[in-house]
Amino acid sequence: MFNNISKIIERDSKSTTYKYALLRGVIDIIQDNSPYISFVENRVQIPTGLLIEKWLLYYYPIIQSQTLIPQINGKTNLAFSSHLNKLISDYEPRGGFSAFYNDLKNKGIPEDLQGDLVELTKKIRDTITRMPMKYIGRSISNDFYSIFKYENQTLRSCSKIDLETLIVAFGTFSIPFEYYEAFKILGSFINGQDSILFKWAKFSVNASGNNLSVHRVLNEVLKSPITLREIKESKKLYKDILKKEGKVYCVWTGRNISNYDIDHMIPFSAWKNNDLWNLLPSDSRINNQKRDKIPTPEIIERQKNLILNYWEIIFKNQSKRFSKEIQVALLGNHSFDNWKNVGISQLQNRCSYLIENRGFEEWKI
């Protein structure tokens, strides 16, 4: 189950933030221990309106922000952007985000805004049920709606919206009981509220007498010592060495190539590793196909001789750096005397771990 959740987070295709918002919303509802949650056989039913409420709370400040925070690849707007922008504009002179939520929960949405809110909530419902609910879990199963099912689609007509109307009038969806149990136990860690990084940042904010913000602390805590400049320098060094060798072969296909990329064999997004042993020449088209995927142990075995050939070239030209880097990253307690066999074996183990335990998508050619 936990492996499935990792695969969904890492492998499911994501062109928008909808899948993140769906998972975050469901987890928050479960963590809230909503009294509207019910159990039918092996599935857990939740009012869709509770999810619509969460999406309103998530996307309102993002869309309102004066800093552009992209939520979709390309320049296309979110399906409900225009509707939400209209609501944000209407509430700006009335007190903004907090005033809107207070009206939704308690005071009631003003009559002149009810029509816009009805259209917005319907648009969010359609977006949720026709997009992320349909496609989430495709990294595990080829079936649509393999995890989330929109159970009750017989909706009550409504001309006015408040929180109670949202809950009773917009149907229900369900998830398997085992996912509910996993989200109940680990949900706050997946969402980040109880993560070590968030707790660290909150501690620092409190210790500063609230003179710092959580996002500022997180920016500092998450800084990586490896910069884009250093990556470029390592790749340039690699290319300079390859120039002396004459012909260059794509490490994944074995074909002679004149134009090539220096590929992170284990993607930088999966492991912040810029070691020379992890940098290999790859056909640009093949590299574009691979992107952030993890090569399988089988493809490493198949291309072992070519990988070792490049390692030997780098070792010959940068022996001190290469030996230090591969010892720390792959060999560990093993002697450097057998670095080739151990290095390949440990590389395969690392890739297998990232695929099977961490949920990263495997890559085959």
Automatic annotation (TrEMBL):
Keywords: Endonuclease, Hydrolase, Nuclease. It comes from the Bacteria. GO terms for molecular function: endonuclease activity. Residues 258-295 form the HNH nuclease domain. This is HNH endonuclease. The lineage of its organism: Bacteria, Pseudomonadati, Bacteroidota, Bacteroidia, Marinilabiliales.
